[in-house]
Amino acid sequence: MPTGPRIVLDNVLYHIMARGNQKQKIFVKEVDFNEYLKRIKHYKRKYKFRLYGFCLMPNHVHLVGEIEYKEDLAKFMQGISRSYTSYFNKVYAKVGHLWQGRFNSRVIVRDQYAVDCMNYVELNPVRAKIVKMPSEYRWSSYGERVLGLNEDLLDTMVL
User: For the segment 96-110, what is each residue's pLDDT rounded down to a tens digit?
Assistant: First the structure.
C-alpha cells in the first residue's frame, strides 16, 4: 500500500526518524557512527538544515531540526540515507536496502515541546539500557547541547 503525501511546512521544526530494515543494526562499529555524522554535516550545509538535536542508536536515528526550504527535507534525508547505505554495503559486503521504508517526520511546535522532544531523543540510550546517564552516550547531541562540548554539529535554536 503506498504511503500518503508527507506534510512539509515552512518555519517548523521536525522530529525525523529512520530505522534499519527489519530493525537491523545500521551502526556496527564506532567508525560507522562517525561516517553517518560526516554525512549529516555535509548535507546540512548543502540543504541549509539546522540541526538542534540527534541520537544515533544502533538500529535507528533521530534528528530534530528545521530546513530553510521545505522542498529540501526529502533531499536532505535521501542524501544522507543513500550515501550511508553505499558506505555500509561496501564496508560490510552487503547489497540491497539498509533502511525500513522512507524516513518518518513529525512537525514539532516551537515551544517547550521542542525542548521536551530533544530530551526524549537524547534519553533513547538510557531507555534502551545502553547507558545509565545520557552523558555516557557518545552518539547523541547531549554532550554538545547540555554539557557544552564543542562538536561543531548543532545549530542554536530560537524558541
Answer: 999 999 999 999 987
